Known about the structure:
The complex is a heterodimer of chains A (301) and B (265). With 301 residues, chain A is an alpha/beta fold. Chain A has ten helices and 16 strands. In chain A, the strands form four sheets. In chain A, strands 3-4-7-8-9-10-15-16 form an eight-stranded parallel β-barrel, surrounded by eight helices. In chain A, helix 5 (141-154) packs parallel to helix 6. Chain A is globular and about 50 Å long. Chain B has 265 residues and is α/β, with parallel strands linked by helices. Chain B has helices at residues 66-72, 109-118, 138-143, 163-173, 185-197, 238-241, and strands at 5-14, 19-29, 35-40, 44-52, 54-62, 79-86, 96-102, 122-129, 147-152, 159-160, 178-182, 202-205, 235-237, 250-252, 258-260. The radius of gyration of chain B is 17 Å and the shape is globular. The mean pLDDT of chain B is 96.
Amino acid sequence: MLEVELCGIRLRNPTMLASGILGTSGAALKRVAKSGGAGAIVTKSIGLTPREGHRNPTVVEISGGLISAIGLANPGYEEFGEEIRVAREGGVPVIGSVYGFNFAEYATVAEKLESYGVSAIELNISYPNVGKAGAFFGYSEELASEVVREVKKKVRLPVIAKLTAGAGDIVAIAKACEDAGADAITAIGALRAMKIDLTTAKPVLGNEVGGLSGPCIKPIALRCVYEIAREVSVPVIGCGGIATGRDAVEFFLAGARAVQIGTAVLYRGITVFKKVSQEIKEYLEENGHASVDEIVGLALR
Amino acid sequence: MHEMQVVEIKRIIKETKRIRTFILDLDVSAIPGQFVMVWLPGVDEKPMSASYTRGDLGITVLRLGDFTRRLFELSPGDLLGIRGPMGRGFKVYGDRLLLVGGGVGVAPLAPLAEEALSEGKEVTAIIGAITKSELLFVDRIAKAGGRVLISTDDGSAGKKGFTTDVLRELLEEESFDQCFTCGPEIMMAKVLAITREKRIPTQASLHRYFKCGIGICGQCVLDGIGLRVCKEGPTFRDKELWKSPEFGHYWRNAAGQKIYFGGKR
């Protein structure tokens, strides 16, 4: 009932770990798959060289979510093979997230992750807190489609583009990515935000600004998925503030075929994937649906 | 929600030449072994064990790098941001307790000793440092009624050698219901090896590079067991640590690369 297919990849349930959460090591990813119950896991975004990221505080809790600026910290693609090997022991598809500072970096890292045995590549053109990487490419149709095109030349795996609502017209970006050969779209990544401490009159985050995630961005993410799913034919993966089965169902109705969960790990623990899956199942049963597929895009009709 | 609270430093105690305790204007009721994230506004944020866990929060800091150097420049009245207390503290269930602390690692063990002694338990603490003047909380634990055994690397006080040398000798003569340890990880790994032979259940407090401190970023997850030091830790049971190839061997830097203790690979 919960099984879905996403560009040729079968998921035992439609919940995926979102990139950037618990994704730095194989041990953490494996735990999210095994005891957490995720249907697929997306790694932390990996780049060409090791990066320590921004200095602390890198995360600050606010009502309704989190603002974070880890800064694309990662051990670099050469060391990450061992982590993917361990992550795959979790028994669910591992999706390799890739960022770059130029097209060639995206392509080189994607090619390497493919050789490590990931099931798909997710292109991080959504991360907003490092100058000319990530969202820098996701703000423009030309740059976004060029990243997709360059990566598609190098890998045979499905390529997913993860978009940012910071773009002026996210639907146009989604269409450009689809035209360039993207096999799926994830929407959305964290949104630029900040927090200032009143006592010291200083920005709290080491990077001053960060990415807002959690329940407070859900309505924005849902609107993006709805508008994108109306215009593209490739699968859309919903991401942004999903914490319950009812949240996930809203995204399915808006046209998403799967959902990514990140910040909700804070609220409901690592087993949030199991809990959300169970809640989706209950919704489907109560409403007489036999599968997730049956309700995908119902709100669009 | 773990909201950051910005509070004043009430008092600063010079414990040794390189170790200071900062007493903060923040009323807490923490379990010994729990930690707080300490934000020095505009500089950085680091995890620190609570060394005073009831009433005004205390943290005890070894001057080591840039962050702690900046911390040592502060005076009473200056501000620090605090998130927490967070994480899993020590769990006491026996009556005869053994504490093994090396260097600034005695910080979370001192409040544990005080609480246990006030509940009528017996506490023996092995405290080690490189030299006599760097010994931490010897008087504090003794004053609370604990028995203190000392080791120094240079022999300037107590036994010349390491805490593990004292531990090995002590366990030839006596037994304990539980052992608690905090200090350099190589020391803790040796403590666990010794107490395992003697079948004394042991809990260790680990230090790792932290980012979020709330269990979502994955930075501090231990290999082999997938447990988060900031969430399921920072105190762990021996049987959890035995299953981790990481414990006693390496940690991960901010980029997530493995860094081996003692620099070996």
